[in-house]
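Batch 3, record 17
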Amino acid sequence: MSTAVPSALRVEGLGLTIGGATILDGIDLDIPPGSLVGVIGPNGAGKTTLFNAISGVVTPTSGRVLMDDRDITGTSVPARARAGLGRTFQTSSNFPRLSVLENVRVAAQAARGGSYSLLRFPRGDDAATAAAHEALTQVGLEHRAHVPAGDISHGDKRKLEIAVLLATDARLVLLDEPMAGVGSGDVPGLVERIRDLHRVKGCTVLMVEHHLEVLMGLVEKVAVLVAGRIVAFDTPERIMADPRVQAAYLGSAA
Ligand SMILES: Nc1ncnc2c1ncn2[C@@H]1O[C@H](COP(=O)(O)OP(=O)(O)OP(=O)(O)O)[C@@H](O)[C@H]1O
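Prediction for the assembled complex:
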């Protein structure tokens, strides 16, 4: 069904029950294209599970996920990636033995209709290699291009994940705690790279983040998830002032 206002992402009545436990409880979200939205909530609220259901890692027991107004609920993770959905994980998801450059090149190659082949050696004139170098320059990692991804700092690993998203065709990106474990010196740079994804590349961005001060200064709207339900969805200012949010999340997170 088409809607008057287009959605980059729409989640309708999303539910997930595992072994009798309700993890997601009828979640509704409507995210217009080009939004930058934060998702917060206490530990165990279901934030990562929501991202897993949106990206196809888990299958919801009820409800639908629509991307660009198209129902993707039953599609695979790779099909969603091909449709333009990109994702980072709480723990780094790079290939540790491949170089920083290879990590980005392989993703760029797959986005251009190639395979995730690790055997295909890059050539200097390869479009995927060029895209990878450009993305690494954008995140400030070009000088680490030939270092194994497992050997770079935690902050640089997070920048590498953003470079992978920049080099692909991702239009809707889900960032799961991009600041987790990152030293305070690396935070401003990462914030700028997330802004690049949003403003320069034009991605719609949803991010889970426990660093509230950073998140509130970055996003346009915040969804608050408590026990598998969205209890508030509003601007950062209103969210910070909402007594329900303070009771449910901010107080318990202190
Ligand atoms: N596959 C699973 N089987 C059983 N329970 C699960 C499964 N996946 C998640 N859960 C449970 O669902 C709840 C939500 O977990 P989830 O990781 O989504 O929370 P979260 O909000 O991301 O938490 P955190 O902020 O700590 O990362 C937790 O109680 C978790 O134990």
